[in-house]
Amino acid sequence: MAAWCTSSDPAPITGWNPIANMARYLYLDNIKGIIGDRMSQMQSDDQSLAREMLKDLENKVTLRSYVPSGKNIPSEDMKGLVKDLSEMSENVEKEIVSEEDAEEPLERYPSLIVIDKDEKPFNLIFHGTPSVNLLKGLLYVVKLVANKGSTPLTDEERERARKLPKMELMLLSTPSTPKVDEMLWLYGSIILENPNINLDVVELIQFPEVAEEHNVIGLPVTVESNGLRFTGDYEASDLLKILEERISDQE
Q1: Model's pTM, two decimal places?
Q2: N or C: fewer beta carbons within 10 Å in the chain?
Q3: Which CATH architecture has domain 18-245?
């Protein structure tokens, strides 16, 4: 991947986009410490949910986080999250990779990848520290990687997923976007069946310039490298139909 955005600060405002500018406002509030020392510091409900979802993992997984150089809030935020999760289950391990030590430069920092027991990275990467519904989505992905086969897809849907062509997808969302966790569960299940599918999940509070670049109005938005774009959350069969038939809601 080409390193086009490695800064831990939001890009300067170059135009007007309501999602992008809301994201910048929330990001700056977080930096000022309005919601605590760590932006994604888990509340008690999140901790209870995480412990519940991680308690029955069948195999070990590693949370490999890529953090920006130096001591900064995004870096400490991601380190704190993977530390918290690794302490909740003996089958969750953490690995911290600094920007300068990454084998290949990533597009954005901080980022997070789930690694399976055979040290194979899952084809889904989180850009920005997951929190709220994105955190729940991460927990779904961890469970999918650890417990192969525990997906919401029917046998017929799994077969359809295997037949999809190679796709480079990007899911754009804020932490509180409704049902984005369920979308991540579906996308993760599709990727589990088809290694030709890659998904980058971009948290728009930390990366508001991405919302501006893609003129994001509604959420969540899925963007594909060859022009497919659609907004909203879907049931598995409908999502597969969109991907199969390349049904876009924008010309």
Answers
A1: 0.84
A2: C
A3: 3-Layer(aba) Sandwich (3.40)
